[in-house]
Structure formats: C-alpha cells, structure tokens
Amino acid sequence: MAHIFFAASIQRHVATPEREIDARTLGEALEAVFAAQPRLRGYILDDQGALRRHLAVFIDGRAVRDRQHLSDAIGEASRVYVVQALSGG
Asked: In this structure, which of 18, 44, 69, 77 has its CB flanked by the most CB atoms within 10 Å?
C-alpha cells in the first residue's frame, strides 16, 4: 500500500496522521483521506477540485503534474507528501 504524509503546517489546522492508503491515483488517495477527515478537503482542494496553489504534492520525490484532475499514478510502494509550497520575493 502507498503511504501518504501531510506536513506539520497542514496538521496545525486539521490533524492528519500519516497512513497507508490503497489508491491508484492521487485523486483516489486524497478522497480516501477526506473520507476520514472531511475538513481537510478545504485546505487541500479549491472549489473546482484542483490542488490549491499554496500546496506542493510529491509522489516518490517528483512533483505532481496534474494539479487539476489529480490523475498522477501511485504505485503500491509509493510515498506521497503533501506540503505547503514555498514562495517569496
């Protein structure tokens, strides 16, 4: 099973312990987490169901490409990290 982690900065708002997840895509993985933690959806997805701009998601160390439909593939041994994106100027 894949493993999903949420950064401490996200957990400050909604406690979301790391967990194993049975999913084939990022969208399936997030929906499984949202089923257990419905409040988390608003922190992760916008009103169109896309990843919010202030978040970065990595699957096996690679940034997610499909931020709109969340179709990036997840393998059985994948590691998914959801973190706040850094910005500055």
From this structure: 44
- Kindly state whether residue 44 falls inside one of the protein's structural domains: yes
Residue 88 pLDDT: 59
Residue 59 lies in a domain: yes
The reported pLDDT for the residue numbered 85 is 81
Let me know if residue 89 belongs to a domain.
no
- Tokens representing 21? 């997840």
CA distance 89 to 44: 24
Q: How many other C-beta atoms can be found within 10 angstroms of the C-beta atom of residue 84?
A: 14
> The pTM is what?
0.92
In whole angstroms, give the CA distance from residue 44 to residue 82: 9
Tell me what the pLDDT averaged over the chain comes to. 94
Burial (0-12, 13-18, 19+ Cβ within 10 Å), 82: buried
Q: Which residues of the chain have pLDDT under 50?
A: none
